[in-house]
Every structure is written in C-alpha cells, then in structure tokens.
Specification:
Elements: H1 2-19, H2 26-33, H3 37-43, H4 47-57, H5 70-85, H6 88-103, H7 105-132, H8 142-159, H9 166-189
Helix pairs in contact: 1-2, 1-4, 4-6, 4-7, 5-8, 5-9, 6-7, 7-8
C-alpha cells in the first residue's frame, strides 16, 4: 500500500526532525503513521534502514534522467545525490547508519540489497544508454562507477562538509566520464 508506505516515511522523517535519530522508535513511528510496528517491520528490518529510507533515500527512486549524453546523465544523477545527501535529515542519519553498519553487518547487507541495488540499477540504465548512443564500446563496471560518483559526493558532503556546487560537480563528472572513456578505449585495444 503506497499510502501506508508514504505515511511511515513521513512519520519517521517528522520524528527524526523533532527528536533526532537516537530517540526515534519504531513504536513512535507506528503511532504517528497510524499503523502497527509489525507493518513497519514488514517493510524495514531495522531502525537504521527505516531512517535511511526516510532521511536519505526515499521510497520511490526517480528514474535516471536521460539528458542525451553520458556526461549529462552522470551530472543529473550527481545533482540528485547531492540534493538527497544535503538535507538536514540526511546529515542526521548518515553518521548513525555508518555506526550501525559497523556494529551490525546484517544492516550493511540489507542496505546493499535494497538501496545500493536500486542505485546501481539506475547507473546501469545510464551506462546502457551511453553504449547505445556509441559513447562507450561496452558498459564499465557499475559498482565502480557507483563508488566513484557516490563516494565523491558522500566524502565531500558528509565527511569533510564542503559545499559541492554545480561547477565542482561538473569537474567530478568530467573526470569520471573521461576515465570511463579512457578505460573503455584501452580495453578495446587489449582485445
């Protein structure tokens, strides 16, 4: 039920804003959303997963933009990542989720199987379009592209807390796109 899914995420985000990560509970979220704790646990296996969805990722990822070029698609994705990571909720959630992952490996497994898989599917779509347009001979490793773009954004926004405006994002994307082209050309010569 999409209505209940949205109500749960809205309730979790409201509580996150009001009381902070540490004080959000599944019971309070269920009460605020007008549902049961069991209904929440059917969707999210942990508080970390719920608050990551509510504060960073959202329930329905937006399909990757088709701008007509690999660079444009990566730039549009980078803008969305920047927007998602720059919210107060994301800044509140990220350090707690990172800490939770170090304590509970199952949280990392779940985040990979739910959120990382979705993000990589979006990158697959971007890379496949680039191949169809002739910008790449073959799709590069999706996980590597994900780590490079997502890692750059996470490090800049969450770790060193520096702004990343469109000009800087463009430089990051230029390096990534150029590297993909160089890697692709060198791989073609090795065949």
């Amino acid at each position: 039920d999409a209505g209940l899914d949205d109500a749960i995420l809205v309730a979790a985000r409201q509580l996150l804003d009001e009381v902070g990560y540490a004080r959000v509970t599944m019971d309070a979220t269920a009460a605020r959303a007008g549902t049961s704790k069991a209904a929440i646990y059917r969707r999210y296996q942990s508080k970390a997963e719920l608050l990551f969805a509510a504060g960073v990722h959202g329930s329905a990822p937006v399909p990757p933009a088709d701008t007509g070029s690999l660079r444009g698609d990566l730039f549009a994705l980078g803008q969305r990542i920047r927007s998602d990571m720059s919210t107060p909720a994301a800044r509140e959630v990220a350090p707690h989720v990172v800490a939770e992952i170090s304590r509970a490996p199952n949280v990392a497994d779940r985040l990979r199987s739910v959120f990382v898989a979705t993000e990589r599917a979006e990158i697959d779509a971007i890379l496949d379009r680039a191949v169809r347009r002739g910008e790449l001979c073959a799709p590069p490793n999706t996980a590597t592209v994900h780590r490079m773009l997502g890692g750059a954004m996470f490090f800049t926004i969450m770790v060193i807390a520096e702004p990343i405006d469109d000009a800087e994002l463009g430089r990051v994307v230029d390096v990534l796109a150029a590297g993909l082209g160089v890697a692709d050309r060198s791989a073609a010569h090795d065949i």
